[in-house]
Amino acid sequence: MKNEEMKIISEHLEEAIQREGLSKRDAAKALNLNPIYITMALIEKYWDSMSKGAWAGLANWHDSRCKITEYQIPEGEEIWEKVQKKEQKPTGIPREKKIPKSVPTISESSPAPEQNKDIKSIALKETKNLLNRIQDFSDTAKLKVCLDIEINLVVNGQKIKIA
Prior knowledge:
two-stranded antiparallel sheet, 5 helices
């Protein structure tokens, strides 16, 4: 398709959208196109990026000389629909969630309310212990950094040790 044809179709499309008071999304739905193609057709620098099928659809509508809302989608043409969510392909073996051994788990069958309180208190204690171990580790790491600093003092080319 030549640039002159594209320009004529683009101008016709813009005029029709304004005349009928349509949004680009509504125009795209009536013409059975992805809404991005309507935007691309209206901006000349994107014309080369549009697919031939999109241009063919716009050319069919242009040649029909009818309103956008009155345009009949050709028989057998696949109706364009927005894909809501892409299906995720499985990537290998599904991972299981790892639960630390020190944290008690609650089973599927619900225990008695008294046992529930015990389990909660045990879980709370174990969580506090875990946090304390993490805190102790970070304090030890800070001390190690402090102890590993060595200062070399040199005066007149002689190394001086501070006792």
